[in-house]
Structure formats: C-alpha cells, structure tokens
Write a structure and sequence with these properties.
globular; 8 strands
Length: 309
C-alpha cells in the first residue's frame, strides 16, 4: 500500500468534494461497513453500509462556525434530534441484521446550511457552505450507487422533524397535498406515481399506484399497524386541509428524478413529543421503522434482510 493511500485512510478524509457544481464525485476509498468518514472540516459524516437502505439527516446538525455567515432567507431552525433518530434507526438495523445501512448526516446547523434545498437557497453564496452542500449530496450519490451495485436497488429514507398540530408522521413521496387529496381512481388515472419517489418501484412491480402508496401493505399502513399514525395510509389516506410536507430537494433529486434508476425512497417527517424527544421514544420509532421497511422491501423487492448470527 502506498504512503499516500495510508495517509488518506489514517486521516479518514472522505473524497466527496466536487470541483464544481454538478461535477461528478471523486471516487471514495474502499471502506468497511460501519466505518465513518468525514468531509472537509468534518461537516459531513458518512457511515458506510452494506444494506440497500440509505438514511439521510440534513437538519440535525448543531455546528455554527463563524467562518460561515448565517443564512438570512428560508427556514433556519434545526429539526431537533433527527440526527439521533437516524442513528437509532441505523442501530436497530445493525441489531437485527448484523449489517449496516448507509447514513449521511450534516453536522452544520441549518442557520449555516440547509442541505435539503438547491445550492443557491441552501448556502446563500457562502463558499464553505457550498462546498459542504456538494460533499453532502456527493456522499448520498455514492451511497446510493454502492447499494444499487450490491443489491440491484437502493431505498432512500430522508429523516426530518415537523411541528404540525397533528401527532402523526408525514410520508413525503414528492407528491403534494392536492395530488394526494384525489380519490384513488383519479390518482391512478392521472399517473401521478410517475412523478413520485416510488416511480421506479411501480414500474418494476405494477399494480394500482394508490395501493402502493397508501393501500394495505404500504409503508403508511405498516407504520399505522405498528402504532404510529401516518399519512398517507389506508387509515389516513389524504392530508385533506392539514399542513403536510410532501418531500423536499433530497428525495426529489435522488429518488424521484428520471435519472435515478433503481432508486426509490421517501421523506419521513416526524413529530417531536412522544417520538423523537427522548432516547426511549426514538428507540421505539426505530423499531417500528425497521419493521415497516423490512416488511415493505421484502414484499415489493423480493429482498430478504439477513438475520444477525
């Protein structure tokens, strides 16, 4: 092994940085599942995985470096405990399977960077924030590519927190409330599933789009059966007139876009009290989430998650 390669491994530097907006990511060094690598200044963390699941946590960071000016437009509040929530889900997968999901987290506070927006709104012209944004999304692309190469598909789960009045999780498939408020017949006829983060999965398995999204055996159904209210689901198929987050930049670019073959996923907006406020509640959410994801993926992808020896 060359001296340069040893130094790179020992420093745990992650070769994600992009030379310019939209340029391809530099190749990362081979890493063992469960190993963490970091971007510049440790603002982006990636825990490498060997499962088809890619977890992302864009709004749980706490760092506020003076070298990056505060954002003056858009939402600047953090989604409290969402990074811890993502780690709880990852730990539950490891406990059950003996294997790791991929996990990418931004350690910058949202007042410095919002990775779930396009780069202009996300970084607002700050070079260090722009670099971190590029590293964050390059890490996601790399993790998804690794999952597809290993398993033939990848499933992206983007974790967030909401402050809406109804204590339920909101499942964002890149479809807004007006689209989801349609009847199943109208929804299916409009072929809205082709705009969603489940577009590739539907092309693969067929059937009624509304069943895949909110019918029996859907992720919303599996969460509800696990004791966590969810919209859309058979129990609560539509947001109606209530606030609803439909899925932001991350899932729209990395899962819903036409140039993301073999990648599906969703954004999960979680309520705070009773779900992400304490370690005990986060562990409960993790158990229900892993139950839902393993059952959904086993049924839809014919993939069997390994059992821990």
């Amino acid at each position: 092994m060359s001296l340069l390669r040893r130094l790179l491994i020992l420093s745990a530097s992650l070769l994600w940085a992009l030379p310019s907006h939209g340029a391809p990511a530099l190749p990362a060094l081979a890493t063992a599942p469960g190993q963490a690598t970091f971007g510049t200044d440790r603002y982006v963390e990636q825990i490498h995985g060997d499962l088809p699941i890619v977890l992302t946590a864009p709004h749980g960071g706490r760092l506020k470096p003076a070298a990056i000016a505060n954002r003056t437009e858009g939402v600047t509040d953090m989604d409290a405990n969402t990074q811890e929530l993502a780690r709880a889900v990852a730990a539950e997968f490891l406990q059950r399977t003996g294997h790791h999901p991929h996990l990418i987290a931004s350690h910058l506070h949202r007042v410095k960077l919002d990775p779930n927006r396009d780069i202009k709104e996300a970084a607002q012209g700050q070079p260090l924030a722009e670099r971190t944004w590029m590293e964050y999304h390059a890490a996601i692309r790399g993790a998804l590519a690794a999952a597809v190469a290993r398993h033939g598909f990848a499933f992206l789960v983007d974790l967030h927190g909401h402050g809406h009045p109804i204590a339920r999780i909101e499942l964002g498939y890149a479809l807004d409330a007006a689209q989801l408020n349609q009847t199943n017949a109208a929804f299916d006829a409009a072929e809205l599933i082709t705009l969603s983060t489940l577009r590739d999965l539907h092309a693969r398995v067929g059937g009624k789009p509304s069943d895949l999204l909110r019918g029996p055996g859907s992720l919303g159904d599996l969460f509800a059966r696990g004791g966590i209210r969810a919209v859309p689901s058979p129990q609560e198929p539509q947001p109606d007139g209530n606030p609803f987050f439909s899925g932001g930049y991350t899932v729209r670019v990395h899962a819903a876009a036409p140039d993301t073959p073999k990648v599906d996923g969703l954004q999960i907006e979680t309520y705070r009290t009773g779900l992400r406020d304490t370690a005990e509640n986060r562990a409960r959410f993790a158990r229900v989430t892993v139950d839902a994801l393993t059952r959904f993926i086993a049924a839809r992808y014919a993939y069997t998650f390994p059992a821990k020896p």
